[in-house]
Amino acid sequence: MQNPLRAQLHILQLEGYDWKRFTKWWLKHPLTFTTSQKKPLVYTFKAKLILVVTLILFIPPLFLRLSYLILITFYLILLLEPFPLLILSLVIIKPYEFIRRFLTKETCRRSVVGHPHLAVIGITGSYGKTSTKDFLYEILSHASQTLKTPESYNTVFGIAKVIQMQLHRKLNYFICEMGAYVRGEIKELVHMVPPDYAILTVIGSQHLERFKSIENTTLAKFELIDAVKPENALANLDNQFISNQLELPDYQGVKTYSFISPAADFFIKSHHLTTSGSNLEVVHLTKTYSFDTKLFGTGNLENLVAAIGMAFMLGIDPKTIQKSVLEITPSPHRLQLISLGKCILIDNAYSSNETGFTKIIADLKSLPGKKALITPGIIELGDHTEAIHEKIGREAAGVFDRIILVGHSERTENLARGIGQKVKADYLPNNSSVWPTIDALAKTYDWILLENDLPDNF
């Protein structure tokens, strides 16, 4: 069991050190003494600094002329509910954080700009960033020395850590994932790590609660495209918000990839899903290239063609691309196939979004066998939560023979409303029951989709 200070510091970190979101969480979860380890607390420099300042703030009351009873009561309250001290610590370290952030960005910029032969590829999007980055890394590393930001390191200090510790003179490529919750954040990152090439995966409802509108999301993500020459940018033509933006004069010449439109520079002509992966044909400059891969699902293939397209733009030999694609394995918990006897588990627990969820439902509809779905729903949809979950519920009811909803929330209630009476839907109280349920379902089902696994702040 954790102590309240560590538990609330963990939540503060999960909320990106945003005091407003942290306060909103605290009002719903006072006296929280423990969190799970789905995404454990990482003792970064900032987390350690906040912890130290918080502990120092316990000292001043000792010098007040208070009775022992009042003093003991005061400390017991703070020990059980450290929220006000954590908020005060955020305020105290703000000036130092501002200076440190500025110096870090400028130091990293000099390192990148001063590199003799480094091509930086920036990747952003509402989702698909990490998978696309991982796939492109596998391709480029077969051709030359390549560095990528690990896991979901896509913020100023996360990227800076990679540059400071791993950037060296022999590298030819640096693939940098760039994340954002508000407009201006990607602009800040492209100043710190000036990109030569850019990939924009998708613009969607992911994190809409933070961005407030799709228009804000679109402008935020296009800050990466704006940072490179149009001919060095690659964007997803199938995404409505991206294709609409690309019609503007400033974006003429931007390269595109597509599952639907032959007008794209990189077009998936055909694809076939199997229990061990997929095969696909990609058309580029009227020539067709065939690829076999261990990746499953049209969502993964969409990210793969983005990586393939960028590899072509960088001049990588087609045979090298084909060979490396065959060796690519799914990113953990991102449409990862796991064999459970005769049953195939599709582990897509890392995160979820409307488009990706809809696509994997459609993929499974075309495959034979008995199917089950386990999901807590999608987070951060703001005012669209009800409509999107009802829609997904209706679609899921037409594909799955059994649906398990994790937790009682606005998300699962709206999923259940969409599902209606079409299929049996049950509830699990929390995540702790998910894997025992999977083991039980694997005995009688051919496919199980595990879609999303919520962090502690939801």
Q: How many beta-strand runs?
A: 15
| Total number of helices | 17
**Which CATH architecture of the largest domain?**
3-Layer(aba) Sandwich
Strand content: 15-25%
Oligomerization category of the chains in this entry: single chain
Helix vs. strand class? alpha/beta
Rounded Rg: 24 Å
CATH class of the largest domain: Alpha Beta
CATH topology of the largest domain: UDP-N-acetylmuramoyl-L-alanine:D-glutamate ligase
Low-confidence runs = none
How many independent structural domains? 3
Instruction: Give the strand order, joined by hyphens, for the main sheet.
Output: 2-3-1-4-5-6-7-8-9
Question: Largest beta sheet, briefly?
Answer: 9 strands, mixed
Q: What form results from the Cα inertia axes?
A: globular
Specify the CATH homologous superfamily of the largest domain. Mur-like, catalytic domain
> How helix-rich are the residues, as a percent range?
40-55%
Average pLDDT across residues? 90
Q: How far apart, in Å, are the first and last alpha carbons? A: 19 Å
